[in-house]
Amino acid sequence: MSRLGELEKPPRLPAWGHGRFYMCCLGLLVLANVSFAQLKHIEMAANLLNQGQRGPAETEARKALGNPSTRALALAMLGTIRLQEGKYKESTHFLTQALALNPRLVGARTSLGNAYLLQGKSHLAQKSFLEALRLDPGNLNARFDLAKVEAFLQNYQKSLDIAEPIVPQLSASDDGILLLATDYGALGKTEELRGLVRNWQKISVPSDESSMELSSVLAKYGMTPEAKEVLEAAETRTAARPSSLLALKLGEAYFSLGLLERAEQSFQTALTLDAACVVCNQKLAEIAVHQGDTEKALAYLIEAKKQAPDDPEVLFQFGKVCLQRNLLEDAWPALSRAVSLKPDHDPYVYVLASANVAKGDLAKAASLLAGLLQKRPQDAILNYAMGAVYYLQGQYSEAESSLKQSLRLQSDQVAASYYLGLTYDAVGQADQAVAVFRNLLEDHPDHAPSCAKLGSILLRQHQYDEARQDLERAVALDPGSVEAHYQLGLLFRRLGKLNESEEQFAKSRKLEAERRAQSDLRLRLLLPE
Asked: Could you tell me the domains of the chain?
């Protein structure tokens, strides 16, 4: 992310209106104490750079390199050009040379600070901005840049203190509002944050990127209506100049607000504008999964996989959805490949372990989970997964130990409690199993598998009335449960209700056959034509 205050990646270079770089260069001219006759090439370079003509600007700047009186300014100009081009190391090299020749070039110091910041060298950036502000306390750019780097370092109050003298100017620019919003939000200044939205509405044409970033900040601090308003305004502006990248960013912003239909529309627009957009297909698949439509998700991921066959995240998402749809022959190789590309990415390894369970390779699943547990022994979910695999392997003592540890770490777990009940039942401790299932159903009364299992144990204990209640409840909760129908058939047979018994057995057989047929059909969906 590129938002101020988040440390994953340095923020983008801000834009103080169209003249930011030109004003930076004017600062160089004023403080350099050089005659304007000597500065014609530098002045021309500054004008060209202000117009976005970096090539001609560099040509003019290089003409000033040979004159000792303008060499420092020329180097500073070249450093500023490289900064605009995104060549941060080259920019740092030129700017450092310029400051070695003339340490009082304030504009060069602010540019150097930005070059450092965009390389992730935040403390060096901080030092550059502080020195620039010391040389010129009234320099608006240096003060803004220093406040920005403090926010980037999550020193929000310090950032706000530094920005205080120029809040009116900041409140009139999109990047300035974004900085203030970051500080106000992090410091819990809700009313001040809400007031910035009114300032934002007065800006004639805020940048699309800053609009989406402001929306994210507002959403982060619970201002969903205001975030939506900012986004909708940005969407209206971009409608006249459609761009796949802008549509993608809008989709991501709407998705972060939970507005799935709007997000889907934006991602579809982005995909229409760029049919090779892998991320668009991934995002549309993610929305489909949220909507419970894994078949639709799979269609998008098949396209993404065609476009990026070795992208680990695409392979992972594809494999995960295939696993959800019981397409084991497709899930396993995709997940294996994702893990081979990113072997230290734990979510990939965990889902691959799940695929190995589904495939019946319990030893491999146990090995993968054991590796994860070595790194995170206090992880409740990993302990549950290990316990479930132990249960499936028939290692009931180990299963009990892992499942109990999982529940100690996180007591309200349906799956861990369910498998603990299964473990007790497998070793003949029926009363303990009944107690576990009853406790589970007190907190989660709609868990159909627990109802079915509890009913089957009570049936074996000849507690027919209670067994019938639980089994009929299991069928009501999950009409597709093969086990619930089968166990209810056994119960009716014991009660002498042969017609009802045969009816339940017939439903069980039908469901089992449908399940096999459906699995076979799904496996054929991804076979080569």
From this structure: 1-170 (1.25.40.10), 445-529 (1.25.40.10)
| Separation CA 17–CA 186 (nearest Å) | 26
CA atoms within 13 A on the CB side of 117: 30
DSSP codes of every residue in 392-442: HHT-HHHHHHHHHHHHHH-S--HHHHHHHHHHHHHTT-HHHHHHHHHHHHH
User: What are the residue ranges of helices labelled H in 69-173?
Assistant: 71-85, 88-101, 106-118, 122-135, 140-152, 156-163, 167-170
CA 253, 256, 259, 264 torsion-angle sign: positive
Tens digit of pLDDT for each residue in 206-252? 888 888 888 888 888 888 888 888 888 888 887 777 888 888 888 88
Q: What is the pLDDT of residues 42-62, one digit of tens each?
A: 888 888 888 888 889 889 889
The closest alpha carbon to 526, from 359, 318, 355, belongs to 318
Query: What tokens does 288 get?
Result: 């489909």
State the pTM of this model.
0.68
Structural contact between residues 229 and 196, judged by C-beta atoms closer than 8 angstroms: no
Residue 228 belongs to what H/E stretch?
helix 224-238
Joined together, the tokens standing for residue 500 give 């009802």
Q: Which long-range contacts (CB under 8 A, 24 or more apart) does 339-345 make?
A: 341/310, 341/312, 341/315, 342/312, 345/312
Number of helical H runs and strand E runs in the chain = 30, 0
CA distances from 496 to 61, 125, 455 (A): 100, 84, 18
